[in-house]
Amino acid sequence: MSEDRKVPALPNPKPRARTNRKLLAFLFFFFITVLVILFFQSPLSRVSKIEVVGNEMLASETIGQAAQVAPGDRFFMISSAAVESRLAALPIVKAVQVTKRFPGVIHITIQEHPKVAFQMGADGSQEAVLADGAVVKMTANNVPLDKPILSGWADSDPNKLALCQALGEIPASSLADISEIKPDPSESYPDKIKLYTRSQFEVYTTIAYLPDKIDNLPAYIASLQEDHINNGVIKMLEVDNHAPFEPNADAKNDANSQSAKGSAPSPTPNKDAGKPSGKPTSTPKSSTKQTAKE
């Protein structure tokens, strides 16, 4: 027999490395799954705070309702693009950006369309008028009325849209003294308007003239005040001129009635005039004696 056949062959041990790796991998994924489940059940996976910046006329609560996001919602289930599309549908929102910051913070940056005027709604609430003529009910409190108030305008009036577009092109500093704008159309000027100033002047102009005339209005009023003229009517049409206020019609009627009462005689003398008196007139005694002698 050969020498190789005398030595028995030892079996090769099977490697256990693969079995250990599979077990470790299973345990690793198991604990990761448990941690993920625990994380999504914890407050860290929920929205804890909604930050809104840039809003002036819309309340933060209104923006949160429009965004359909509230504290307690699942943080990772919220899509920033979806929230932006919902907020962009608001007529007053010009641009919006939504960012998510872990843990649980939703940051919303709002850019509103510039307002050009205010008006009062049918229910007495304040409404903002935008440059495109859109009307937005303001939900924020304590909004300063730093723009003119439109009164007497119909929503379907095309002149109102033209006025809003013109106001959108005028700097805010030029409108600082304007408190109210009313329509005042005439046959010669269908787009004629009346402006009330905080400096006690009434200004008549047209929507077409407004962008050019409004720039000269502060200097014109300042020149009148230098001449100690503190109120009156200013017409800024083809030619600019100033006139004092006319007295009201009621004041005229009162003055006329008072003057009529002062000049007319009292009714009692008129009735008695021309009528004989019921009492006989007495004759002096001296004259009676003289008549008897004669």
TrEMBL record:
Localization per Swiss-Prot or TrEMBL: Cell membrane; Membrane
Positions of transmembrane segments: 23-40
Region spans: Disordered: 244-294
Segments of skewed composition (Basic and acidic residues): 244-253
Keywords: Cell cycle, Cell division, Cell membrane, Membrane, Transmembrane, Transmembrane helix
Gene3D superfamilies with a match to the protein in the record: 3.40.50.10960, membrane protein fhac
InterPro entries documented for this protein: Cell_div_FtsQ/DivIB_C, DivIB, FtsQ_DivIB, POTRA, POTRA_FtsQ_type
Topology of the protein relative to the lipid bilayer: Single-pass type II membrane protein
Feature: compositional bias, Low complexity: 275-294
UniProt GO BP: cell division
Annotated POTRA domain residues: 45-113
UniProt-listed Pfam families: FtsQ_DivIB_C (PF03799), POTRA_1 (PF08478)
Main location: membrane
Family designation: Belongs to the FtsQ/DivIB family. DivIB subfamily.
Biological role stated in the UniProt entry: Cell division protein that may be involved in stabilizing or promoting the assembly of the division complex.
UniProt name for this protein: Cell division protein DivIB
Source organism (scientific name): Paenibacillus aestuarii
Organism lineage string: Bacteria, Bacillati, Bacillota, Bacilli, Bacillales
